[in-house]
């Protein structure tokens, strides 16, 4: 009491101090009575006082003693805004003059009580029954209060010392188990009481923390520091739109968490750049070959890890030409250890396609390989059939490959960054070869598919060429480098972007297994129509869909019956590897196929250069015409592949330019060398069929050459017939005026087309090309309207004959109906008629554009023999660089001394005085080649244009004033088109019949073989020579089938029944 009065004596009057002392004394008496009353509750008498009344009286007296009294207005108000922390709380009341913000509480201020004395009762803190510091059998009874508790200094020793102040520690339960003996358990330090210092912690914590090392936060509600947060009564209620922490959240986000936006690209969160380290690697025969571990994540979910081909990726830096790959001693994994037989070798060529196109193709290939392994009864395939299949992905140029495609390959384990090198022993690396047997696949949605989805291991070879050297060079790596190392039976060619059907590769391989005389096979290419066929809303996509379908229904089956398919599409085709090999003199299909890669200078004439734009056509011809052989080519309808077609005019024109030029010159080449057929071992019937096909190709070639004149004459005669008063649907000669306008428009369009094609790229003049195609569509629509009107009037006129003969009904109606009707009939025969209803109108509308736009652009660009490669776009460095410094300051090299400037001036004067002759710069070889090609292009375009112009002018002048019924040339054109369509329909029907007979015979032989096998097993006889199943058994080899159908199958006419 004295201390309190002394503390306040310098601030209060004597009367106030007395009143204050009396209040404190009364409060102490009251608390003693309350403590006695509460402690006596456990020893209550038989008539206890009601608990409610006792608590009420205590509360009333507390309010009376603690509340500020009105009798003494001079007493200071206690600070009720924020109670002091228990750590800093003293036995003197705090003083504050701040106004109250709420009703007073018993917890606002601490009571003014004297310090505990020696006779005061000790404080026993509460301990949980199963707390770590309460051990059963050793009750804890502290003898110190929290006020004078002193914890030993921080130490790593968590146990009490054996002695206390130099004397032995009093006996504890632990002394019963050995006391001071070694190994006896020690007593752990007791935890600090609550509020002994620092912020409170969980009493259940197993770790004993040193609270003296943890500072107290300034915003702790139990400290004396306080904070600057506004009071609760000055804030909005939680019922309003703003919460109680909105102000702080906004302030923290704006002031603390966010800073200025970074100026440079930031690394992806969680990504870590690979750390490059220097290692010493021993070269193998002077070549860099590495076995690299696969990533840990990929390794973690692999179903098979029992071989190095699953756990390591092999990298080889190839420093030679593909023709020298085997001779230089390079080997693939299939050649190391126990060599594996390669039955099927798949090539996937890639340029700069994105990851969606790549995964669509690759996932389709892996699904096909899974189908091979599912044929468990086959003698060739089965569970481990994947070991006979190798997939080779060849990328044309390291700088051209799409980065996301490399990421997709890396996800499959077939590629790792940071391994490839540019030079090995000062030798330039030409290709980077990565080998790995992957067990996962990525679909077009970039989702992983593994063994749970039926994916089997696939042997992968990823060849990334250092330079961009065209697709032909990629095939040279495939055939001459890797093919020679593996020596496969069948090679399949695919392009990235083509999605093979689920069984397409099997059907291609089975064609070679059935017929030993087949050297090549072509699959059916389908145009991608988009999701829900929405792509057909684009007229370009729809017209190409119709074109692809009719080619697969009429053209390919016809050529397959003859045994010579003019082109096996690189997007989906297959070859027998032994048939591609050259003879002992080095001449053969592959030598002619790769001849186009080495054409340089003026010696490579424009005819040969354009012919090798479609080098696959040359390969097809060389296979059929191979000396002393009897190879044939087949079309496999069941092997389907879907590819994306161009959907814009520039891409469409650029693609068809190479196709049309290559096809035209390759057809000329095969017709000029048709005598080579007589040097083969084909039968006489096969040679006759091939000559019939040559005649058909010649007729097609002539129609292609004069297609421009034929289109104009057809429009001239049919649309001009409406000028007759008898056929004019408008009256007043309006049809005549429309015809004259469209006639001159057509002529001007053709002239403009030549100018556009010779001076502009489709990408640079896309609008002009587009509007020209629209104008051709209008002309075609009016021509179609005129022909339909003539047919209707012809059928309604009773005077016109309706019989076959020299009349309009026969020459116009029958010929046109025959052509269109055959399209419908053959489409229904092949059970695929939908393109006739969804795409035929778009195709016929764009038919003039196929002739006038595509054909004109192709002939006007015969000098352009490029195929996806760029020119010299390397920056020159012979003049030096101006290196930028700070701001507009650059660093460069230039003569600065006066002597250097004077010497340059003196040299110029000396040269003028002596007049030294400057040697003329010779003509660059590339420039000479380009000039030569342009000159030949000009001659060819002039000849083609004059030929078509002469034909158009001559026929229009000869039959311009005659009636349509007496127009001989129009009748010839219409009936020729109908005749060619009929010829194609006959060949297509023959193909369908032959395939049906083959299927019936195969089914019959399979059933008979199965029945014989069952009867032999039932009788106890075991057969070793025969079997059944998909792909197994002698009936499946093709020799029996060919002999059974020798009277009608074209393959027997070619000698396939003898086998190879």
UniProtKB/TrEMBL annotation:
Compositional bias annotation for Basic and acidic residues: 61-73, 216-234
In alphabetical order, the GO MF annotations are: chitin synthase activity
The annotated regions of Gly residues compositional bias extend over 1026-1035
Its main subcellular localisation, reduced to a broad class, is membrane
Enumerate composition-biased segments (Polar residues). 39-50
Q: Does the keyword field hold Cell membrane?
A: yes
Transmembrane regions listed in the UniProt entry: 698-722, 734-756, 768-792, 812-831, 939-960, 972-994
Q: Where is the protein found, in the record's own terms? A: Cell membrane
Q: Where is the Chitin synthase N-terminal domain?
A: 277-343
Q: What are the record's GO terms for cellular component?
A: cell septum; cellular bud neck; plasma membrane
- Cite the entry's keywords alphabetically: Cell membrane, Glycosyltransferase, Membrane, Transferase, Transmembrane, Transmembrane helix
Organism of origin is: Paraphaeosphaeria sporulosa
> How the protein sits in the membrane?
Multi-pass membrane protein
Listed GO biological process terms? chitin biosynthetic process; mitotic actomyosin contractile ring contraction
Protein name, UniProt field = chitin synthase
Annotated EC: 2.4.1.16
Biased composition annotated in UniProt, kind: Low complexity:
119-134, 1036-1060
First-level EC class: transferase
- The annotated region (Disordered) lies at 39-234, 1023-1060
